[in-house]
Amino acid sequence: MLKLNVPDMTCGHCAGTVTKAIQSVDSKASVTVDLPSRTVSIVTDADAAPISRALETAGYPNEAA
Ligand SMILES: [Cu+2]
């Protein structure tokens, strides 16, 4: 499982955008967003790097939690 800090994720709309960006890399990824802590837990077989890049491209800088 990957866990990322996504500090700019502040509302349900952000959570939806983040989820879509992750699932554009792995459509089967299971994505759990925790808004209060601004973290995302991802169950995926994909590598962390392309997921991180997809989030960055969607406007959400991120780092490993
Ligand atoms: Cu938002």
User: Could you tell me the mean pLDDT?
Assistant: 98
Total number of distinct structural domains: 1
Q: Give the bound compounds.
A: copper (II) ion
Q: What structural class do the secondary elements suggest?
A: alpha+beta
Describe the structure.
Helices cover 37% and strands 25% of the residues. The chain has helices at residues 12-25, 48-57; strands at 2-5, 30-34, 39-43, 63-64. It is built from two helices and four strands; from the N terminus they run βαββαβ. The mean pLDDT is 98. It has a single domain (2-64), classed as Alpha-Beta Plaits, CATH 3.30.70.100. Strands 2-3-1-4 form a four-stranded antiparallel β-sheet, with helices on one face. A hairpin with a 4-residue loop joins strand 2 and strand 3 (39-43). Helix 1 (12-25) crosses helix 2 (48-57). With 65 residues, the chain is an alpha+beta fold. Copper (II) ion (CU) binds at residues 10-11, 13-14.
Features:
65 residues; alpha+beta; Alpha-Beta Plaits; four-stranded antiparallel sheet; 2 helices; 4 strands; globular; binds copper (II) ion
Sequence-ordered SSE layout with sheet pairings:
Layout lengths: L1 E4 L6 H14 L4 E5 L4 E5 L4 H10 L5 E2 L1
Antiparallel strand pairs: 1-3, 1-4, 2-3
Bound molecules: copper (II) ion.
Copper (II) ion (CU) binds next to helix 1.
